[in-house]
Write a structure and sequence with these properties.
heterodimer; A: mainly alpha; ABC transporter involved in vitamin B12 uptake, BtuC; about 85% helix; B: 6-stranded mixed sheet; 3-stranded antiparallel sheet; about 25% strand
Chain lengths: ~280, ~280
């Protein structure tokens, strides 16, 4: 079987469509995750989603429903409990552990085949159906449109909450809105890379982009581009060389971050030596 | 015309009285200093002017209207900011001061924004490092950028919370000159919260002194006065005029709070020691 034949298969095509929209949404939302130092919340929302999916499977529902309910619920809880950027680690931690406990309970109660759980944990990019693609694309589109609408105020309140609030913005409302978008993105990203690796698309590309530019809009677009390229290449390598696609995507995303750090470091050294 | 008119005002937080009987008139175009020990309610007064904290008694007019959050005529530079670890450039941060509150896809006129940002950076002397990420700037540079951010939309009233904190004396003097320059350039009324009158004295017209829940307000000479301060602190305060015409204020050391974390470094400076060595003096010009 030639590589081109494999890449032309319907399930591989679906994977490419799905990953494209998810990477764009995750790269954009991820920029604010990194800017707002909310990696822990992103991590927690993914794991809370796992409990939701396990619960849905237990009840015989689609795991996506459980993911959606639990992720958005966790986003709202974290947003309400830790409205300001300073007091939310504890809220995130408690939400995370409470949900993981529930997840353990649901799995222990579930006597069926554990395949669904496994795919939630590690993603099932090559098992994406056309219906999944449509769902993932609509959610990602909603996220991108909403994020572009609140872009400037969210940036303001993330960088300088005290003066943003004095200038009339609501930190709580923006935090809630952002965490809801983060939750939606997490739900769709879990379809691709799974709960355990959802982080890679949300954090690594944005962290890499932050190293490479000090213009916010450029960093956001760069983050989307890095997420996109990591995902595309990840599927390609998975199909070509074998090995889980999730592995390739996370490895590429991590490599991009490492490369950006090295690049930024080299540039700083150059500047420093140029001045000296 | 007065930019701020506060009448018989009090502020409480929960059951705790912050200050009361405050009557303050701030003339338009003047520079005022809000002084007093840590925890006296200096920042609370700024928050009241911003409409962030309601009065429990009295009345307040800011630029002729009741204060309201988001008043586009009022600029504010908070004491604690999180700009210190950001990747974005000083220019982008100042730009957020111009259109950061705008939702939606409507683009602000780029040329108007660029012009305003360029002007603000020029006035505050921050043009040279405008392209650098905030996290690479020094404390003094960061204060300049923060001032540019607070005044980029040309507010009529500019509220600055401890703009001199954590700066060395040379940097303090630069920021004081800069505050004066902003007044002349924009005609704004400026109110500065400070720990120490010393560095600000050359430019300040009006002093508000808060201690023990009480507020004294007036021209600098009327407030920085043995009788007024002794009454305010409840024990004798002496003001010694040095041969060069500067004033040293003695007796403030009795008014101190608990060890207080430094706003920027987090280091705990004992207030007693701090106040003991603080000499408040004023250039007589």
């Amino acid at each position: 079987m030639s590589l081109w034949f494999l890449l032309s298969l319907a399930f591989v095509q679906h994977a490419y469509y799905a990953v494209t929209v998810v990477a764009l949404a995750a790269g954009a939302v991820g920029y604010f995750v990194v800017l707002r130092r909310q990696a822990f919340a992103a991590h927690a929302i993914g794991h809370v989603g796992f409990a939701g999916a396990a619960g849905a499977v237990l009840l015989g529902l689609s795991p996506v429903l459980g993911l959606l309910g639990f992720c958005v619920g966790a986003g709202v809880l974290i947003g309400l409990g830790g409205a300001t950027l300073d007091d939310r680690d504890a809220v995130v931690g408690v939400t995370l552990t409470a949900a993981l406990g529930l997840g353990v309970l649901f799995i222990s109660l579930y006597s069926g085949y554990a395949d669904a759980t496994y795919s939630i944990l590690f993603g099932q990019i090559l098992g994406v159906t056309w219906g999944d693609v449509v769902l993932v694309a609509s959610v990602s589109l909603v996220v991108l449109v909403a994020l572009s609408f609140i872009y400037r105020p969210l940036l303001f309140v993330s960088v300088d909450p005290a003066s943003a609030v004095a200038r009339g913005l609501s930190e709580r409302a923006l935090s809630l809105a952002f965490l809801s978008l983060l939750a939606l993105t997490t739900v769709v990203a879990i379809q691709i890379v799974g709960v355990l690796l959802v982080f890679s698309l949300l954090v690594a590309p944005a962290a890499a982009a932050e190293q490479l530019t000090n213009r916010p809009r450029r960093a956001l677009l760069l983050s989307m581009a890095i997420a996109l390229v990591s995902s595309w290449l990840g599927i390609f390598l998975g199909v070509w060389l074998g090995g889980p696609v999730s592995f390739w995507i996370t490895a590429l995303a991590a490599t991009s971050y490492l490369g950006a750090r090295l690049g930024a470091f080299g540039k700083r050294r150059e500047t420093a030596m140029g001045v000296a | 015309m007065n930019a701020v008119e506060l009448r018989d005002a009090a502020v409480t937080r929960g059951a705790k009285l912050i200050w009361r009987d405050a009557t303050i008139d701030v003339a338009a175009g003047s520079i005022s200093a809000i002084l007093g020990p840590n925890g006296a309610g200096k920042s609370t007064l700024l928050h009241a002017l911003l409409g962030l904290v309601p009065l429990s008694e009295g009345s307040l007019e800011v630029l002729g209207r009741a204060p309201h959050r988001g008043d586009a005529r009022v600029g504010y530079m908070p004491q604690t900011r999180r700009d210190g670890d950001q990747h974005l450039s000083a220019r982008d941060y100042v730009g957020l001061g111009f259109d950061g509150t705008h939702f939606g896809w409507r683009r602000t006129s780029t040329s108007a924004k660029d012009q305003a940002v360029r002007d603000a950076l020029r006035v505050t002397g921050a043009s040279a490092f405008a392209s650098q990420p905030l996290r690479t700037l020094s404390g003094g540079q960061r204060q300049r950028v923060a001032l540019a951010h607070a005044m980029v939309f040309r507010p009529e009233l500019l509220l600055l919370d401890e703009p001199l904190a954590a700066l060395d004396l040379a940097a303090q003097a630069e920021i004081v000159d800069l505050i004066n320059l902003i007044r002349h350039d924009t005609g704004a009324t400026i109110i500065v919260v400070a720990h120490d009158l010393n560095p600000l004295a050359p430019i300040v017209d009006h002093v508000v002194w808060i201690a023990r829940g009480q507020v004294r307000s007036g021209p600098t000479d009327k407030v920085v006065d043995e009788g007024v301060l002794s009454d305010l602190y409840g024990h004798p305060i002496e003001i010694i005029v040095t041969p060069r015409g500067r004033r040293v204020i003695v007796g403030l050391e009795e008014e101190f709070a608990h060890p207080h974390p430094h706003p920027h470094t987090g280091a705990r400076v004992h207030e007693a020691a701090h106040e003991h060595f603080a000499e408040f003096y004023r250039e007589q010009s």
